[in-house]
Amino acid sequence: MDNDLHALHRQAADWLIRLREEPDDREAADAFEAWLDQEPAHVRAWASVSAMFEAIGETRPEHADAWRTENAAAFRTPARRVYRRWGQVPRARAPGRRQLGAAVAAALLCAWIAPSAILFARADHMTGTGEMELVTLDDGSAVRLGPDSAIAVDYQAGARTVRLLAGQAWFDVKHNPGAPFRVAAGDVRTTVLGTSFDVRRIGSTTAVSVQRGRVRVVDHGAAPAPARELATGEWARLDARHRMTHGTDNPALLGAWREGQLIVRNRPVGEVIDELRPWYRGRIIVLSPALKDRRIDGVFDARDAMTALTAIVRQEGGSVRRLTPWLIVIS
């Protein structure tokens, strides 16, 4: 069943590209209408792929609501009628490859530049896609920023605070009992007593892991605020619902992202994909919600996102397609 669904999504994506490139091809239009009318699943696959293109900024089809209805019988005829209206749309609204590429590129620029500009205004240090940077703070503590990451530094008398605004950072902190070192990542506060540790704020998950020393992690976004002390080799993760999980790992394996590696043990596919996004200069879109919840193990090269995604997804029966140099679709 899953393989059939993946095949239908591939077919729908092929139709979308062909029809956008050849908007006046009557033979292609008739063949597409025949494909839509074959079975309701074709229309649902078409709606899913169309919604994916909307998500990256493509102009919303005026007939999308008709495609999304759950009553398959009710939209077989409208789907055909709607496409014939689409065939009469001026070429400016049915662009060829260059126009479509330009439209998608413009949408992606809007999606990327606005958040980056906000981060730039707030951050003291930040990195781009696939970049890492080693920052030495005034007290000699070191911070290694992962890709697409940003921090703001606030050192005052008796207190040292670093705010992780986005991404991930590895901290090697100089001990100073007169000035506690704290890392703020959203609602999560990590207080340090001289240690090497990792803080990640990627997707909806905030995670802390300790290679050496001890830290105290408190989630101020929940009441009562959950707290946990972590020692060498221990980690804690907090999800969007402020649920905390914790465990122990080999300290030598923590922070492997500094070498461009993702070491995954019993993690949801969705979380692993989120950790790959900062390494890829484009968009990664997942069409299968069920796939995100499946748990996997493995070691992946984050610097080669396409190969890593293929290895992750195919072991779970999914498929990976690169539709453009800046767009990967997983189904």
Task: Provide a short characterization of the protein structure.
The protein is an alpha+beta fold and 331 residues long. The protein has helices at 2-21, 26-38, 40-55, 64-68, 76-87, 97-122, 269-276, 289-293, 305-314, and strands at residues 125-126, 133-136, 142-145, 150-156, 159-172, 181-185, 188-192, 196-202, 205-212, 215-219, 227-230, 234-238, 244-248, 261-268, 283-286, 295-301, 320-324, 327-330.
Based on helices, strands and strand pairing, what is the structural class?
alpha+beta
Globally, the shape reads elongated
- Residue-averaged pLDDT: 78
Low-confidence stretches: 56-96
Q: What radius of gyration results from the CA coordinates?
A: 24 Å
Report the major sheet: 13 strands, mixed
Strand content: 25-35%
Total DSSP helices: 9
Number of strands: 18
Helix amount: 25-40%
**Secondary-structure element sequence?**
HHHHHHEEEEEEEEEEEEEEHEHEHEE
Distance between the termini: 13 Å
Secondary structure layout plus pairing:
Elements: H1 2-21, H2 26-38, H3 40-55, H4 64-68, H5 76-87, H6 97-122, E1 125-126, E2 133-136, E3 142-145, E4 150-156, E5 159-172, E6 181-185, E7 188-192, E8 196-202, E9 205-212, E10 215-219, E11 227-230, E12 234-238, E13 244-248, E14 261-268, H7 269-276, E15 283-286, H8 289-293, E16 295-301, H9 305-314, E17 320-324, E18 327-330
Parallel strand pairs: 5-6, 15-18
Antiparallel strand pairs: 1-4, 2-3, 3-5, 4-5, 5-8, 6-7, 7-10, 8-9, 9-12, 10-11, 12-13, 14-16, 17-18
